[in-house]
Amino acid sequence: MSVASVIHSETDFDVRKIREDFPILKQQVHGKPLVYLDNAATSQKPQVVIDAITRYYTLENSNIHRGVHYLSSQATMAYENTRTILKDFLNAASEKEILFVRGTTEGINLVAQSYGRTFFKEGDEIIISAMEHHSNIVPWQIVCEQTGAKLRIIPMNERGELLPDAYEKLFTPRTKFVSIVHVSNSLGTINPVKEMIAMAHCYGVPVLLDGAQAVQHLTVDVRELDCDFYVFSGHKIYGPTGVGVLYAKQELLEKMPPYQGGGDMIRSVTFEKTTFNELPYKFEAGTPNIVGGISMTAGIRYLQSIGIEAIGAYEHELLEYGTEVLSSIRGLRLIGTAKNKTGILSFVLDNVHPHDVGTFLDVEGIAIRTGHHCTQPVMQFFKVPATSRASLAMYNTKEEIDILADAIKKVMKVFS
Amino acid sequence: MSELRDLYQEVILDHNKNPRNFGKLDHANCQHEGFNPLCGDHLFVYLILENDTIKDIRFEGSGCAISKASASLMTTVLKGKTKTEAKELFERFHTLVTSNMDRPVDSSKLGKLAVFAGVREFPARVKCASLAWHTVQSALENDPNIVTTEYNGN
Question: Is residue B40 part of a domain?
Fold first, then answer.
């Protein structure tokens, strides 16, 4: 398929123009044009994000809050303005419900340690699912160790879909929390989270959603979902690493003790007694990743300027094309074939280990991820040691999927 | 593609497809486990040691072509060697796969192991090639820990 026909078929969505906004995509790798298909690990950054970082350090750098000088107030305004953008992005009720964290992992750890450690008791039960990333397993195991609570796992079918009936059966009077992934990083499954939250709420149980693989592909409205906690990472939504967002309902945050102590999170400190700052600052000890927050929201505004619906529709078209092209390769098995999924193409090949696939594709300029994708229980479920995973973003093209398919065929020939 | 051919030489592809000395060794008096959880390479080596000599050696497990071929070729060269000779070979092999690209390869003492010279062009694959060798070293040294050649977290 020629480039011209690809662009013609995507008239509503000018992928060529979008690609121009991402300088890294212009480079060659091993003498071949870079085909970047590792977006679930981290997305590339548009020029506006890179510019926001440069502008901040060139013109605005200063520590925020409490500064009386010009630069400090500029930086404070810029940083606090991002909270408003994030509130609107998630449709939260108030800026008080938007906490800056280092990323999804820290957000989940914050909830596990602040909420879980405070409210879980011996014998309580925490529900997670069979397709969780390690970051939504291990923090709960740690808090289970600390409190005597136990994990309960929602099973899935061989397409990689959670089983709703089995989920409902997990609820008991001891169930205290549900923490599930919105979109699976290794399978691409979009979980029916709205229904799952409604069910948990029938039992009076709060729900956390791990949105690391969701916010860049679909509209997330925390009030419509009625989720209690929502977490995502900046670097997977076209922003920088080291910054992310934890949304939490204000009434829950009011009940939760601070996660870390230090500067900024206090109102007054004496050696006898410290009183804590109001929300959201109670949960934000120390100088935050100021440039991270500012540039992350530059990425989100960029995404909004294209339109999340349009991005989702285009990525879905790519996914359907990729599924068709890869499925037609004899000896290739797709892992994760849920009806409702985002652009994740995880696969295994007969007689070729994913690691060898990764090395062959790299030489062709193609970046994919091979391994367990931090979801070892998913690998165990599908009885594979690892998969090769191509993950799509708004700047990928059908032509790139063709390049991927051709390279896979080449690898299979070498190992036949 | 020329670097790839250096890495995936015919001998390596052959040993991957038809690994030698593959399977459990009955009456082994020394065995060890090697596991790289990130990529999933997982193998067991079984040895029969008599007076410091490797009378027999086999391996089983699953992994990428490089790790499987490396384990297979290793068993063919280690059979009949003393512990000291095995250690020397391990060191030569290790130097081969980790040495700087500018350094010429001294293949005179490597024999068929020289096919792994291409690994040094792929730093990410050194851990695959060296897993079986480290596992045997640990077996010979009675190290109680499972061997891994991955150190980068996750």
Answer: yes
